[in-house]
Amino acid sequence: MADDVDRLIADGDRITAALLAMDDHPGHRLLRGASLTGASRTRWEETAAAMVVLWEWYDVHRALLARCRDADPDLLRVLLATPVTEVDGTPLTSAGLLARMTGRHAEITAVLDEAHARCADRVALLTTPADRLRALPDTAVVAALRVRVAAARERALSDPLTPDPEVAGLVDEVAAVHRLHEGFADRMAALDGVVEEVVATRERARVVRARVVERIAGDHPDVPGDDLARTVAAVRARFPDVLENDVAQVERTAATSRDRARAVLEQLAGTLERRAELRGRLSAYQAKATRTGHAEDAELSDLHRRARSVLYSAPCDLRAATVAVGRYQRAVLDRTEAGR
Predict the structure, then answer these.
(1) d(Cα 118, Cα 124) in Å, to the nearest integer?
(2) Would you place residue 64 in the very low, low, confident or very high pLDDT band (cuts 50, 70, 90)?
(3) Which of 3, 25, 26, 242 could staple 112 via S-S, CB 3.0–4.6 A?
(4) Distance between CA 264 and CA 220 in Å, rounded?
(5) So what's the pLDDT on residue 71?
(6) What pLDDT, on a 0 to 100 scale, did the predictor assign at position 86?
(7) Is the pLDDT of residue 25 over 80?
(8) Does the pLDDT of residue 79 top 60, yes or no?
């Protein structure tokens, strides 16, 4: 029977240590000291009540242990086999009481662990956003985010057991604002570079267009004239109150202006290149006709004269020139292939 007493003492020591650790658990300190709301308040009220009962059971167990220490073997057998308390209508011996205490302690500790972990995780997640916001200028957007981050932190403390789906999105929002402020100067420098390119490209396009209008008949694209520099300057002047969408919109506008200027210049230059290509082709086939002995061919000479007249007139009708050069080319090929 001495072994039974030793086991009862060991169980008592173990449960004593467990309950003291539970009482000093960081989750217990959090829930006990906070002004809880929501599901956390309900679950804490249930858990606190369970803790009271657990301590009551612990007192029963200690009283039993005190009686068993000095009991003779016959009395000890009776004490260990006799119910010491009743739970939910069920009489419990010392072994049954210990099992209930162990189970109840595990349930309580699970709630305390969950509260501590969830609160710590959310507070940690919000620490970087809070630090970043403190370092940013006082704008309306930053001020609003500071309020929301503070509210999210308060929810982490007052209702840690309820998930807060807003936190992840809030962290992303703060990160985006931080990136905007940190990268604003670089983005403005990049926009300045685009503005310089657009201005230069448009100037080249104007020069080329003047030549095209003078030399090539038909409708030609106008060189865009939107004031991109003013648009960029306007968004720069609004910093630090500027929004990400505003900067992104200007970047899209700048990219569109750059692409449009490039396309117009390419189209205008392509018109002159097309005329030069037709002239080169006409000369090449004239040389081919000469090499193959058709330099004195009257029909070929007339076709060449007509094509050259269209190509070297100002303004030149490129469509008519294309047709005329094509006719001359086919005529030369017909003669050279027939002579093989």
Answers:
(1) 10
(2) confident
(3) 25
(4) 9
(5) 60
(6) 65
(7) yes
(8) no
Question: Is the distance from CB of 300 to CB of 282 less than 8 angstroms?
Answer: no
For the chain, give every domain's residue range.
2-117, 179-269, 275-338
- DSSP letter, residue 222: P
Give strand pairing partners of 216: 316
Confirm if 202 and 223 have CB atoms less than 8 A apart.
yes
Q: Report the distance separating Cα 22 and Cα 106, nearest Å.
A: 10
pLDDT (average), residues 62-68:
73
Taking alpha carbons only, the member of 270, 139, 136, 261 closest to residue 195 is 261
According to the model, what pLDDT value does residue 49 have? 96
* Nearest CA among 178, 155, 147, 152 for reference residue 167: 152
| Average confidence (pLDDT) over 275-279 | 96
Residue type, 103: G
pLDDT at 310: 94
CA distances from 36 to 46, 124, 160 (A): 13, 19, 9
What pLDDT sits at residue 74? 60
End-to-end CA distance of the chain: 126
H-only helix segments in the chain: 2-23, 26-33, 38-69, 73-81, 94-135, 140-158, 166-215, 228-237, 244-291, 298-311, 318-338
C-alpha to C-alpha distance for 84 and 97, rounded to whole angstroms: 8
Least Cα distance to 321 among 217, 211, 219, 221 occurs for 217
Say if residue 276 is exposed, middle or buried (CB neighbours under 10 Å; 0-12, 13-18, 19+).
Answer: exposed
Tell me how far CA of residue 80 lies from CA of 3, 60, 76, 104, 173, in angstroms.
12, 13, 6, 21, 63
3-state secondary structure of 118: helix
